[in-house]
User: What shape does this take?
Amino acid sequence: MSKIALFGASGAMGRSVAAALRAEGRAYRVVGRCEAALGAAFGHDPLAERVCWNPDDPASVRQAAQGVETLVYMVGVNYWQFALHPQLMHQTLEGAIAAGVQNVVLIGTIYPYGRLRTANPVREDHPRAPHTFKGRMRKAQEDLLLQAHAAGRIRATVLRLPDFYGPGVASSLLHSAIEAAAHGGVAQMLGPIDRPHEFVYVPDVGPVVLRLAGHPLAYGRTWHLAGSGATTQQALLQELERLAGRPLRRRIAGKTLLRLAGLFSPFMRELVEMHYLVTDPLILDDTALQRLIGPLAKTPYAQGLRESVAAARTP
Assistant: This one.
């Protein structure tokens, strides 16, 4: 029986954790709303038990969590539907507790911090004071989980990540530039691109999640997994141009252009309130995580971009 379940498994982080489980030869359960998506991502893996769920149906949630010891929560929503995050967490938590799940690991974001209030890089004790709607919804999601831990109902922890990128990761600030390096076209980026920023390489995340989930002292608090060092989107674009062997055409969207694009695109409209993360960067300090689980393998940006472009070129 699968002792670990990946809720929201079809996304980039789910595939990364699944790859780490496969590398260890461990059976696992993948849970998602769409059987076709689960089959496409995991149908080739005999270690993966595929389960469809309806998070609005308590019986469906309990069934998806039945027999599981550790639940890794990566359930995504459309960028314009962040109000669903606390609701989905509540429904999942209640079902997981009823099913006897012992541990929950939430893959979190920096949104609950709001604007930078200390010097970079920031530790886990940075205030959670979100000034955006998305940040408040993510904070509410975390609060539900950590309150359940404090009440002794389940063991819970949050692994907080910065922006990410990697092979096949479409929901990345770098995706368009990677596609442009691989196939031509225009690299569409969110500017300004000369400010400090960090990215975590998605394949690096899965092994960290498993090490954290299996550590008895991991629960009851939040941890940071930082990227591969502070860089800029400009520096990464230059590396992609080197890989492509040519200059890349680029279109840099600032806040004003985002507002205009938002008249026609709900996704672009929702990017406006998060634009501060580009102009006022927040860089993570993961010293505490390294003290807990040991050294962290981090793919250098040049290698990660090379692998991402190669994957984009593969039919």
